[in-house]
Amino acid sequence: MDNRPQWGTRAGFIMAAVGSAVGLGNIWRFPAVAYENGGGAFFLPYLFAILTAGIPLLVLEFTLGHKYRGSAPLTFARLNKKTEWLGWWQVAISFVISTYYAVIIAWAMSFAYFSFGEKWGKDPGAFLFGDYLKLAEAPGQVGSIVPSVFIPLVLVWVIALGVLFKGVKKGIEAANKIFIPALVILFLVIVVRAVTLDGAAQGLDAFFKPNWSLIAEPKVWVAAYGQIFFSLSIGFAIMVTYSSYLPKKTDLTNNAFITAFANSGFELLAGIGVFAALGFMAQQQGVGVSEVVAGGLGLAFVVFPQIISEFPAFNGLLGSIFFLCLVLAGLTSLISIIETYVAGIQDKFKVSRNKAVAIGGGISAVISILFATQGGLYFLDAADYFINQFGIVVAGFAEVVIVAWVLREMKVLQQHADSMSDMLLGAWWKICLGVITPVVLGYMMIQNFINNLKENYEGYPTSFLLYTGWGVALAAIVVGFVFAAFKWQKGSLDLPSADNKGVSK
Questions:
Q1: Distance between CA 391 and CA 89 in Å, rounded?
Q2: I want to staple 141 with a disulfide (CB 3.0 to 4.6 A). Which of 47, 93, 136, 386 is the partner?
Q3: How far apart are CA 435 and CA 405, in angstroms?
Q4: Whose CA is closest to 66, among 116, 4, 142?
Q5: How crowded is the C-beta side of 166, counted as CA atoms within 13 Å?
Q6: Nearest in space to 257 (alpha carbons), one of 29, 441, 468, 55
């Protein structure tokens, strides 16, 4: 008998999967990546990447989790005992991400409050790094805890762990059913206001105008695959864990298509909102759109506050809505990230859910205090870059190579997905995962190694990167092997008997 918790409805699962995929990167990463890689022309490689890597990988992870009905460690252990370390490696990557991701959500909470009265004044950059973060002078200096970051950080953990204590159906599913519709509605308010501002047309023209001269460049295609890969929450245990809570009967392939296109739809919406606002800002300053384009933390916490200050009316309200959108997008992703190690701890060590949430979430919350110190931004920046480039990409590469080439399980997994789904997987699925995805991820991985061995990321000192970047990425692999060395309780690796409760078609 399978006593694993289940989603209440198929819509609940899709909301949770979309909530995980739609994160901060959708809002601050995609628009700049699209613009820098050909504007409207970028959508061609982007769509190609969705169909040849994003959706095939989602189908793979949904099928793995559903067939083997476990967290990532249990799923890979049931697939083959020798691959359990891969599941723990992915869980360790999630653990690292959760420690600093919570801090960025805390910043967004603070800025939602700061929007009323535009506390950043006339120089948002100086405000962010000086007044708010009280940034240390050099990388590696820890300094003291910054109360204005620490207090909202506590609130972030209270909300995230509060949801997780409630369980899969009453916690994660219920929260996503509120957070995702709220996020879409609030972001639509921002987009509608942005596209009606003076200068919005120039911004949208810059975003959508195709630069076909870039389409033949390999870096554009790699950027498209990178955007899809980082955006869909694949390669670090989330989708495997979430799909393990699906009922026996569910359309796996269809779920993957819905999740992928919902995520891309939100990215497109974010691109429209961001570039309409950038067009307005460019017109206000009398410069070209290219001179105000930014991405990442700079877009969210420096450029957007500037834009908000220049709005003709309702500045505080619109600013708080924008940062509330970041909070909601971040929370739904953070909850999914924490769930990976909560489920892993529960499966392997047979502890109650509450204990797993308290131990896993508690340790992560304590470590996250490091990123709420004066030197926190440096640690965050290095850990984020290295765990993404040398954690997620390498673990994703290992996953497809092990499943497709080492274990040769594609046929078995295809049969399982097809037995559940209306849309049958053809040869394209095996070609995409067996050839295209490993080649692209392998290329990205090698380029990353070469670039980072040639030049230190952001010019940080080597000694600093050894323990905050390279060391963190390497430690995640070591943790994978250490946890895999613990023995499972008797019978844990047996697949649960058929349980026909719940039909989600």
A1: 8
A2: 136
A3: 10
A4: 4
A5: 15
A6: 55
Distance CA 55, CA 49 (A): 9
Q: Distance (Å, rounded) from C-alpha 37 to C-alpha 212? A: 10
In contact, 262 and 254? CB cutoff 8 Å: no
What tokens were used for 184?
Answer: 């879409």
d(CA 39, CA 214): 10
In the chain, the amino acid numbered 365 is: A
- Is there a contact between 95 and 236 (Cβ–Cβ < 8 Å)? no
Answer left, alpha or beta for residue 488, where phi above 0 means left and psi between -120 and 50 means alpha: beta
Model pLDDT, residue 503: 39
**Burial (CB count within 10 angstroms: exposed 0-12, middle 13-18, buried 19+), residue 104:** buried
Q: Mean pLDDT, consecutive 10-residue segments, the chain of 505 residues?
A: 84 95 90 92 94 95 96 97 97 97 97 95 94 96 97 98 97 96 95 94 95 90 87 93 95 96 94 94 92 86 92 90 96 97 97 97 98 97 93 93 97 96 94 94 91 94 96 97 96 75 42
| pLDDT value, residue 312 | 85
Question: Beta partners for 373?
Answer: 145
Beta bridge partners of 249: 503
- Interatomic CA distance for residues 96 and 472, integer angstroms: 8
